[in-house]
Amino acid sequence: MPLFSRATWASVRERTFDPRRRLLVAFDLDGTLAPIVARPEAARVPRTTLALLARAARLPRVRVAIVSARPLRDLRSLVPSARVARIAQYGLEGPVGPRGATRKRLRRGARVIGARLAQAVAPYGDAFIEQKGLSVAVHHRGLSPHLRARLRRSLGPVEREARGHGFGVQLGDRVNDFVPLGYDKGRALAAIRARTRPRFTIFFGDSAGDEPAFAALAPTDVSVRVGPGPTAARFRVRGPEDVARFVRALVLGRTQGPSLRRR
């Protein structure tokens, strides 16, 4: 159901614009706040969106969070606002991540898996791996559908080996993330909700990797799929421009009083 349809939008703004209610609004990054690009280092969150996020994060009783597959160093660079909570690598980094010996063990496993993936991906010139420290991604956006299918088959033995190291696969938008078992965006979102205790939660995401976060929400919360594709989210928007539109409406609705909330 479109988020900005007349009936839907009236219901959502009634719950989220009320400044007396504690709200957690969380976003995936790539494909949600930032347009999808060929390589992760080329991604940028538009300046207007960054400014809106910073304003939203300063609102009373509003907590803004990024829940992403990216490493924490990327989130700090792409979303520099100090008031925005950054939950990176499916919750492996940031305020809800593991500490100490667990991190060391996961780093060792990620290095081993990364080396095996480098061998498997080498024959596919337009695919590449991204070693994130606690997880490893295989990016295959540049491949044709035929080569992408071949690559997925060739990753099978590595996936089985990865399970022996305690890692599974999370699927993103033309990316396979090798992530420690038990970590996904649903777990990460639940952890930040436990810390912030909001009255309502809104989560925006654009890929299969965001589906566990949608599933973790309560029936009274708001789940929004960005773009096409099958989803368990209740609502949908077209792209990052509509996400920015929501943040702008939230800021105005929480600062300009009841007259705007009734519109």
Task: Please describe the topology of this protein.
Elements: H1 6-16, E1 23-27, H2 47-57, E2 62-67, H3 72-78, E3 85-87, H4 100-121, E4 128-131, E5 136-139, H5 145-154, H6 156-164, E6 167-171, E7 175-180, H7 185-196, E8 200-205, H8 211-216, E9 222-226, E10 235-237, H9 240-255, H10 258-261
Parallel strand pairs: 1-2, 1-8, 2-3, 8-9, 9-10
Antiparallel strand pairs: 4-5, 5-7, 6-7
Which structural traits does this protein have?
alpha/beta; Alpha-Beta Plaits; 6-stranded parallel β-sheet; 4-stranded antiparallel β-sheet; 18% strand
Structural notes for this entry:
The structure is a single chain. Helix 2 (47-57) packs parallel to helix 9. The longest helix is centred in the middle third of the chain and has 22 residues, at 100-121. The protein is globular and about 60 Å long. Helix content is 41%, strand content 18%. By secondary structure, the protein is an alpha/beta fold. The strands form 2 sheets. The chain has a 6-stranded parallel β-sheet with strand order 3-2-1-8-9-10, sandwiched between helices. It has a 4-stranded antiparallel β-sheet with strand order 4-5-7-6, with helices on one face. Helix 8 (211-216) links the parallel strand 8 (200-205) and strand 9 (222-226). The chain has helices spanning 6-16, 47-57, 72-78, 100-121, 145-154, 156-164, 185-196, 211-216, 240-255, 258-261, and strands spanning 23-27, 62-67, 85-87, 128-131, 136-139, 167-171, 175-180, 200-205, 222-226, 235-237. It has 2 domains: 6-92 and 184-261, Rossmann fold, CATH 3.40.50; 100-180, Alpha-Beta Plaits.
